[in-house]
Design brief:
Helix content is 51%, strand content 13%. The chain has ten helices and six strands.
């Protein structure tokens, strides 16, 4: 029987995941965590075969987002990690896989896809949510494990946008034209395969660009 540790800062989500995971009778949830600090401590003391985690969780000491994935990968390299996220876009997928995740599952489809992801990762393969595979096909990206690369100026613009500044305010701050800042924002979103400001801000937060 597969031993699973789950982590999410919403108890109701953990309840649902536990029901889905244990429904087949082949998996057992052996521990639950409500944040990155608790998750890392739990995995250190509780043997498990797979970690299922959200990565947009508040933490006191340990890193969140992609930093958490990196820590899990370095400290527990033999334990595959499945990321379950509401921000299911290509940027999240590519960066999560580049930081050591073995699967990315959209929360909207987790009840159907989570059991598939569990079986896939224990076989040593990578699982990608169906909605994300469709986005990859549309974007024409053949190698989803390669993290998207932004230029220094694009990173600066994304960070300032995510901190609450407008395009006009950023232009005034860095002494560039509004059209230049708008173009850098658009280019960054295109590189990340992100189409909405909400997803852009979520990416910036999870990538550690803003607190």
């Amino acid at each position: 029987m597969l031993r699973i540790i789950i982590a999410d800062d919403h108890p109701i989500v953990r309840v649902g995941q536990k029901v889905v995971i244990e429904a087949s009778g082949k998996c057992k949830v052996v521990g639950e965590a409500n944040g990155p600090d608790e998750l890392l401590a739990l995995v250190a003391r509780t043997p498990c075969d797979v970690i299922v985690t959200d990565f947009a969780m508040p933490g006191d000491q340990q890193a969140d987002g992609y930093g958490l994935l990196g820590l899990l990968h370095r400290q527990f390299p033999k334990v595959p990690v499945i990321v379950v996220t509401m921000f299911a876009n290509v940027a999240t997928l590519r960066t999560a896989l580049a930081h050591g995740a073995r699967a990315v599952v959209a929360k909207s489809a987790s009840a159907r896809e989570l059991p598939q992801a569990l079986q896939t990762v224990v076989q040593g393969r990578t699982f990608i949510s169906e909605s994300l595979r469709a986005q990859l096909d549309l974007a024409g990206l053949g190698q989803p494990t390669q993290a998207p690369q932004l230029s220094g100026k694009e990173q600066e613009v994304v960070r300032m946008l995510a901190s609450g500044m407008t395009v006009s305010q950023i232009a005034a701050r860095v002494n560039r034209s509004i059209s230049t800042i708008s173009k850098q924002k658009s280019t960054a979103m295109h590189r990340l395969c992100i189409s909405t400001d909400v997803d852009l801000f979520a990416y910036a937060r999870d990538a550690g660009m803003v607190p």
